[in-house]
Amino acid sequence: MRSNLLPVLKQGWGYIAWAFGLFVLFALLDCNILQFLSFVAFAAFIYVYRNPERELPLFQNSSVTSPVDGTVISIEELDDPEYGYKVEIESDFSNVAVLRVPMSSSLLSVVHLKGTRLAKNSPLFTKTNENAVLIFENRDANKVKVVHRCKQSFDGIHIDIIMAQNLTQSFRYGSMIHGVTSIYLPRNFRLNITVSNELIGSETLIGYFS
To answer: Is the pLDDT of residue 57 over 90?
Structure first.
């Protein structure tokens, strides 16, 4: 379990290096248009893979914060014995790609499946797209399941976390560019968000366990 504290995510170093190398090459060849385009790509990759510090507000121990930056697109009540609510958050290229632990907890399970990167409106989106499923449990045995699923993107999901005890709320555990995150919450949970809310990873309160 390693926390990436650099200002740019390590998952983007390769893209940034290639774009900078092309910029230098086209500068030497005096190809002005290609030089400009490669510089734009270089700057865009730095922006997409930015890794800002976040201040964790002083919430209660029973709180759950957003694991991602994005917009709430749906809140659904489930007919399920374990989870009572599902919150869907959509992230795009303008959002910070860092994934963060939603509550102080231990990691019970993590499964990362490679797959396609179809558009969200595709009927095969939930069945074939690359996804990662993580289940967190706090000291009161409350569980939260987080499912990250890629949309159309040049990069996939990166998970950098192992089965461990005493995870701190807001701890960085990976990255996802342009995707949808589903949060499954038990029935003893009080939601603090509504549809269309803009969320900030580790800073926006999703709600509390009652």
So the answer is: no
